[in-house]
Amino acid sequence: MSNTTSTLPAGQATAPRDKRRFSIDSIALAAPGGLFLIVLLAIPTLSLIGLSFQGMDGAFSLSIYEQMFGAKIYIDVLVNTFSIAFQATVLCLVFGYPVAYWLSRLENRPRRFAMWFVLLPFWTGALLKNFSWIVLLARNGIANSVLQSMGMEAPADLLYQRTTVIFAVAHTMMPLAIMTMLPSMLAVDRTLVPASRTLGSKPMQSFWRVFFPLSMPGATAAGLLVFVSAIGFFITPQLLGGPRDTVIGQLLIQQVTQMLNWRLAGAIATMLLAVTLIFVLLYDRVFGISSVTGGASAKLSSGPVRDFGHRVLNLIAMIATAISEAFAKVLGGYRFGWLLPTVAIITVLVLLIPVVAFIPMAFGESSFLEFPPRGLSFRWMETYLTSPVWTDATLRSFYIALACAVLTAFIAGLGGYGVARSNGKLGSIAFMGFMLPMIVPNIVIAVSLAYFFANIGLLATDIGIILGHTVVSLPVVFIIVLTTFKAHDWRLDQAAATLGANRFQVLRHITLPMCQGGLIAGFLFGFLHSFDELTIAMFVGGGLRQTLPKQMWDDVILSVSPTLAAASLVVLLVVTVLFVLAEVARPRA
Amino acid sequence: MTNFKMNRRTLLKSGAAGAMVLAAPAILTRQAFAADSLTIGDTGGPYAEAFRLAFYDPFEAETGIRINNIVLSPDPVPQYQMLVDTNYFLMDVSVMTPEHIDRLNREGDYFEPLNLPNVNSDDFVQGAITDKFAAVYMFAISMGYRADTLGDNAPESWADFWNTTQFPGRRSLYRSPITTMEIALLADGVAIDDLYPLDIDRAFASLDKIKNEIAVWWTSGAQSTQILQNGEVDMLNIWNTRAQTVIDDGAPAAISWVEGHYNLGGWTIPKGSPKADMARRFIEFTLDPERQAKYTEILAVSPTHLKGYDFVPEDKRGNLPTAPGHIEKLRPLDNAYWGENLSAVTERFEAWLLS
Amino acid sequence: MSNMSNPTTKLSIRGLSKTYNKTVALQPVDLEVKTGELLTLLGPSGSGKTTLLQLISGLVDVTTGNLVIDGVDQTDAPVHQRDIGVVFQSYALFPHLTVRENIAFPLQMRKVPADEIKTRVDDALAMVGLAHAGDRSPRALSGGQQQRVALARCLVYRPSVILMDEPLGALDRKLREVMQDEIKRIHRETGATIIFVTHDQEEALALSDRICLMNNGQIEQVGTPREMYEAPQSVFVADFIGVSNIFSGTVENGQLRTDAGLLPLSADAPAETCAVMIRPEDVILNGTASWALKGTVVESTYAGSETRVTIALDGDKSLIVRRPAKSEDMARGLAVTVSWDQAHARYLTK
């Protein structure tokens, strides 16, 4: 392990002691990250929770909870939130799975190409896509025109419906689901399905009894991530939903940014966090949390859940086989090979629609956002580029994203290195720690940080936003860096050490150059994450420090001008360029 | 700079010395546009355009002081409160209504006195000039509807709006009790002069009757504009300025002025603002009748200066709340009532919406 | 092998070929496999042996030709209806199922009653000596144990033909030899028809009833290991099977002119002979034959049971000789003569 062993005489006495010292050394690199998360995640969340259990006089009191549970509205909203998140998660899995499956079966080159069309809507952010739907799904919008041209009589009420909210939430989260499911599908040994065929199983049985259960770790991880993200998600219900679709996020915004009622906000956040954690624990009981991290174990779980799972799969396999055979009989051996690519490609196209629709809207002549736009004009582009409000917000977003990317890359880089080089228990604890911001709903982090920063004078400051963005972008960047370091061949470092390089030289000449692709990708993803982020910016920015997404959100709420489309176009360009860079830099497994 | 001091103090307090490095660009940027400029919080959209034309650009031309504008939150009160509490002067002048001011006054001392010795409040409509507030426009909230779908069968009262069999169409209301409570009572037969203090129970009973017919509860001016402009709904309660923007854009929309309310909007200076003097200079600049009339070219609001109306172009006069035939149908909004009751009624209103 | 006494044809291949995008992976080939026989498909990588195996399994579609199993044409039958078993190089054990569930899988696919599945799985586990490991995950087993599970999974449903695609490739030498014996034993006990793919000629010689040697997408020669070793029909076969010394040249006056000099040909040597092959163990050093080639010892390697001597001949030709280990050492640079008994020489015509 240690490169110092090679410079020492390989004595029996020194080697083991040296090894132990090294493992302590490397995991210690995760300490800054741990400290960072304790100060900026654990303490803020706990102090907000603590606040909710205090009365006005500071003594322990459940009065705010009595008030909250007394008013049925909070429970109703919690039920809404979970119901929307749950249904959206199911949609994401049902439609995301075929896309991921289709991607996993493509050759490498076409897959890389196709994945860009999934990742582009991922990085262009929720705000833009959801606002696009308002225009496209309007009563006199293009979707209704198409429906009417196909013979529907009255325009359908597509907006402000629960169904639309669930669709749009699922639409927003779908790329996340697909990208989480894909790796575990790619990891399935390609000989297993042919093997099951030779053992006598029909194609449908092979899929359901062999491929499907093996792809489950990715699917369960995707389910958890999408669900947790959807719980804290408020953009879609706010823009596309009616009052009955109100979610917790909106109530928190109201309590914090309008009522400044921290105690009630704390109680709502506590309730949300508690229910989420209970859900995560149950999830762990059923699926095993290791599925989230994608770790494969040699141990098979056992017990009734597994038996039940296998029984269900057997049943599905039988039914699917019967159906496909019945079809084959009716249609005379008709092949269904086209079905998967068709479903997958249509799903990907639907993912792209709202992103692409924004481009022409930026060049319309009307003062309103319309699709298709009338005329061609650059006035909104010009308004965007000359308005100090928009340019200030854009510049602020740039330097906040830059600072966040530097800070995140530094913390995640050290942590990733430390965890990658350690096999001990501390390593897995550190790993779970770095993943925590993914498990705690974003909106809870945002409210806790806003409260914490308000107490120490960092509310409504750029530093506050930078720190907050760093907290939420840590997991993704950490994972990228960790996989990079894990894939690195450390024997090369040992080789360099035997050739006379000291630790620093090894790092500088071997480790960093070889891992730079992953580190650059981590940096760029940190940048993108911050550049896109709205929730933290909204709460911690305190309505005073406007980032570009916050400015866009305000524009959606307050003025709805095509300047928004022009700004979105700029976001789209920046994101595309950075994303292409990140993808090019990212090392391939 | 107060601003810098605050940053330094909090940084030392939180012990995050390393964060100084990160803060550097923020401080630099802030100082870069600090010199000789004013930032105004307005309500965005057509308001921002109209004020740019009437006030911001002329003021820049006359004084060399640059005017930046930002858009206020739908409810600017918490933002304003935070701004004063944290001494972060995102804006030096902010648009408010008397109702906002009433609410802030209940929280504490949030306004810088205006001290405008050259301004005579008698030259203005009643209530326009106080020691903390200088109104520059008057706006109305009434009913907007689609002329293409409703045609000759347009609703002419809130009772008509409630009558879904005789006046079919998709409806929308403001997701706020302000004015929504008033029209619910009007629809239930309360006379417009007997509204205040509002009978909240009766209002909710009246709203129960229409609740299932409300397709959209709009939350911001921009949204009300959007759904009227693209025909998402056929009728709604809406600020006249927002409806006029739709009409000016060529969409087949119309305003019914019957049983509406009007209110004032104007400037305030946040307590402790380092640019209070410059702000006073700007406010005084906007109280000129001819300058006020200028904004009517874009924005359908009435000047608060009594002589302002004389400078309004002929073709714009008919759009204003104060135009003959409009003003008689409008009543002032009771700002004091809402200042006192807003949060309680809002809580009940939100719960009612979700039930 | 009792079945061999009354051989019937199990599987018959006629003109089977495979072309991928104009690249010919397998030329049209004919092959008969007898019931109960263990036939190896031997050849270097790219010779077409795996393609042939995949065509038989049905995992790859046939370009031309026919495949008949037990008298029934199976050329276009779906994989799962062919009643063949495949043991994959990577074992292809299902990681989400236990060892027992893996073995039960093909029986479940065939809707065998549950109690019968249990007894048959138990029997299969016992046969491969893993009765204790049924409830473990395949991932928790060693390579050799995984190999046994893969075998058991294949044997349990008694397919009419078992295909094995380099199943021992991932094992170390010792384990490979143990598994070879194991496969032979199971083959003997079950009487299964096995087609075994390997690139290791020693493994082929050790295991097979017959060897089918393939090269460049074609079958070079089919025969018993003894036939292949002792009577190769081409330079390729002679070179590929065992260690051999091959002298190619042209016939001149009853002799073969080669780079190393003139070699005698026996009277029955075909006229179109193009090469002479002599195995290392048949070379005589410093013998008394009427002819001999002169050479110099360049390397002598002691290998326990034997000593392998490399001798440089004229014309940059070198020759390998195997001698009993007990014989005296041969120093580098020692001048020697080499010759052989004409009866041990093989005359190759292609």
UniProtKB/TrEMBL annotation, chain A:
It holds the Pfam family BPD_transp_1. It is found in: Cell membrane. Its main location: membrane. The chain crosses the membrane at residues 27-53, 73-101, 113-136, 165-189, 210-235, 264-283, 338-363, 398-417, 429-453, 465-485, 506-528, 556-582. CDD domains: TM_PBP2. One of its GO terms (biological process) is transmembrane transport. GO terms for cellular component: plasma membrane. The keyword Translocase does not apply. Residues 78-283, 394-582 form the ABC transmembrane type-1 domain. Keywords: Cell membrane, Membrane, Transmembrane, Transmembrane helix, Transport. It is a multi-pass membrane protein. Belongs to the binding-protein-dependent transport system permease family. CysTW subfamily. This is Putative spermidine/putrescine transport system permease protein.
UniProtKB/TrEMBL annotation, chain B:
GO terms for biological process: thiamine transport. It is found in: Periplasm. GO terms for molecular function: thiamine binding; thiamine pyrophosphate binding. Keywords: Periplasm, Signal, Transport. Gene3D superfamilies: Periplasmic binding protein-like II. Residues 1-34 form the signal peptide. GO terms for cellular component: outer membrane-bounded periplasmic space. Its main location: periplasm. Pfam families: SBP_bac_8. SUPFAM superfamilies: Periplasmic binding protein-like II. PANTHER family: THIAMINE-BINDING PERIPLASMIC PROTEIN, THIAMINE-BINDING PERIPLASMIC PROTEIN-RELATED. Belongs to the bacterial solute-binding protein 1 family. This is Putative spermidine/putrescine transport system substrate-binding protein. It comes from Devosia crocina.
Automatic annotation (TrEMBL), chain C:
PROSITE patterns: ABC_TRANSPORTER_1, ABC_TRANSPORTER_2. InterPro entries: AAA+_ATPase, ABC_SmlMolc_Importer, ABC_transporter-like_ATP-bd, ABC_transporter-like_CS, Mo/tungstate-bd_C_term_dom, P-loop_NTPase, Transp-assoc_OB_typ2. GO terms for cellular component: ATP-binding cassette (ABC) transporter complex. GO terms for molecular function: ATP binding; ATP hydrolysis activity; transmembrane transporter activity. Keywords: ATP-binding, Nucleotide-binding, Transport. GO terms for biological process: quaternary ammonium group transport. Belongs to the ABC transporter superfamily. This is Putative spermidine/putrescine transport system ATP-binding protein. It comes from Devosia crocina.
